[in-house]
Amino acid sequence: MKIQTKLSFIFSIIFGAILLLFILVVYHYYSQKSKDDYFERLHIRAAIKVDLIDGETISPDILHLLYQNTPGEYEPLVTIYDKSGKLIYQDKQDALEQNKHFLQLNQVKKNGFSKLFDEKGRQTYGFKIEGLKGEYIVFATGCDTHGFSRLANLRLILLTAYLITMIFIIITVKLFARQAFLPIAKMIHKVKSSKPADLGLRLDEGNQKDELAMLAITFNRMLDQIEDAFTEQKRLVFNLSHELRTPLAAIITELELCQQKECSTQDYQKVISKTLKDAHRVTKLSNSLLDLARASYDVSAISMQKIRLDELMLEVCTKVQKASPGVSIHLLFDNEPQSEKYISTFGNNYLLEVAFTNLMDNACKYSFDQTCTIHFDYDELYCIVTINNKGLEIPQQEQDAVFFPFYRGSNKQSVEGNGIGLYLTQKIIALHHGQIELTSLNQITSFKTKLPMFEG
């Protein structure tokens, strides 16, 4: 069942139940009032006859005659007893009525009155009354035909009004629900009618204030992220194809030249050397892509542990110096850590090693003297590792772009690379909920990395 239909059904049931309860209360009130009014009329009719008999204003025989000649099948029947229970007067001899009265006499004597309803819809009102000759116990029995008729009309009116009102409520609720869900229906139609390649689709954000507008805004932001991801993926695939094609084309060219002509041993060695260099370049690019895939995992899918950053940086230094024997790396503590937690973080050892290897390798390669300096520091929340080198400055307009995939700076001709390293490093640091900042001024380039302090 659709939410729109479900809401229409629920609201119709709620309004219908409230209206029905109101109708029942109204009907019960008027029904009770009708019965009370008839009891009052019975009381007045019986009291008049007691006054007539008690004051001997009229004889019982004349009262009998008047009762018999009164039109109407349901004329109240009045019966009068003295306080001892002796019958003094009855409009019409009715032994059955007298038997009922005997059952009520004690209640009237005790409470001063009694009210009775029988299965035929008749009402009997008994009460005590003081006369000139003493106390009387009087019973008046009758059927309120006019009251029943009025209640029947009231039931018909209330039922008709209820049905008409319910039809109106159902139609109104349905129209209101349709109007309320119209923006959602438009969203669904627009999304369904779009093509998979239509990444420029955006939903109407309306007034940008209500819940539906917030839903549209959230959906549009998600589409923005998806579009950015697809754009980045396309750019990544394009650049990757270019980066792979260059060394592979060089390998193919060298091998084809060797195949087409006779070469000396020295020429073969040169070809092998160039081919190996290009093959290593492809291997390095492949490894970077594998690391990039790892850095794109959800953090819950990666093995995390406590890591001492000073020990990790020593391992990275050894690795970089082994790969490039001519480099020089210096490690300095700006503030002596008071405890182990100030140089410890929680992360994946392999990924952090990849990130700092990229930073350290770049710092050495782009340095004038192949030297870099590593500074350890900390604040209240983060362990801070800053890698400095002295070399060509990175222009201000390029400082944000260096973290884009396959981006090579204006000094790319002097150093080999594939443009993935800093992009990969930024993703790894972000995966560890850290931050990385670049500053380049007065021929000093610094990459400051902040990683959350381990709270074990």
UniProtKB/TrEMBL annotation:
This is histidine kinase. GO terms for molecular function: ATP binding; phosphorelay sensor kinase activity. Residues 178-231 form the HAMP domain. It is found in: Cell membrane. Keywords: ATP-binding, Cell membrane, Kinase, Membrane, Nucleotide-binding, Phosphoprotein, Transferase, Transmembrane, Transmembrane helix, Two-component regulatory system. The gene is sasA_261. Residues 239-455 form the Histidine kinase domain. It is a multi-pass membrane protein. The chain crosses the membrane at residues 7-30, 156-177. Its EC number is 2.7.13.3. It catalyses: ATP + protein L-histidine = ADP + protein N-phospho-L-histidine. It comes from bioreactor metagenome. It is an enzyme of class 2 (transferase). The lineage of its organism: unclassified sequences, metagenomes, ecological metagenomes. GO terms for cellular component: plasma membrane. SMART domains: HAMP, HATPase_c, HisKA. Pfam families: HAMP (PF00672), HATPase_c (PF02518), HisKA (PF00512). InterPro entries: HAMP_dom, HATPase_C_sf, HATPase_dom, His_kinase_dom, HisK_dim/P_dom, HisK_dim/P_sf, HssS/ArlS-like, Sig_transdc_His_kin-like_C. PANTHER family: SENSOR HISTIDINE KINASE CPXA. Its main location: membrane.
